[in-house]
Amino acid sequence: MKFLVFIVIFISFYIKSAISADFIDRGYYVIDLRNKVEWLKCSAGQQWSDKQEKCIGQPVKLDLNEIKEANRIINEQLEGKWRLPKRKELESLVCKKCSEVKINLEFFPDTPAEPFWTSQRNWWSPKFFWSVNFFTGHSYGRFVPEKKLFVRFLRDR
What's this model's pTM, rounded to 2 decimal places? Predict the structure, then answer.
């Protein structure tokens, strides 16, 4: 019985370590070792507070035209080439075992359990773009560019 308890504890520690091993926390951004990118820790409209150790402000929903302006501003303020994620990049943040929000809130706190934009068009129906929903953990290719969704920017390493 003691051996079984040890195995269960070891496996749960190993799984948590394996998931955490993919990310390195760097304050306002997170290094994603698997995808070789850096994610902003907070959604667009929010700002990371080192003092409070959380995202402050309210996340905002943007359409694709508004995202272009937000992306220009963020590149000026944070230096670098921040961009919208590709579908596979954003899908890689989905945490299937997470209960309320399907993303690791340790690294991406205060993330709304709603759809987020990707930069990719739906190849079956090119007037629509792909999104990743952090409530369900699924991807959908059904939103037109005028629709307002949440945004998380990243940059290549």
Answer: 0.85
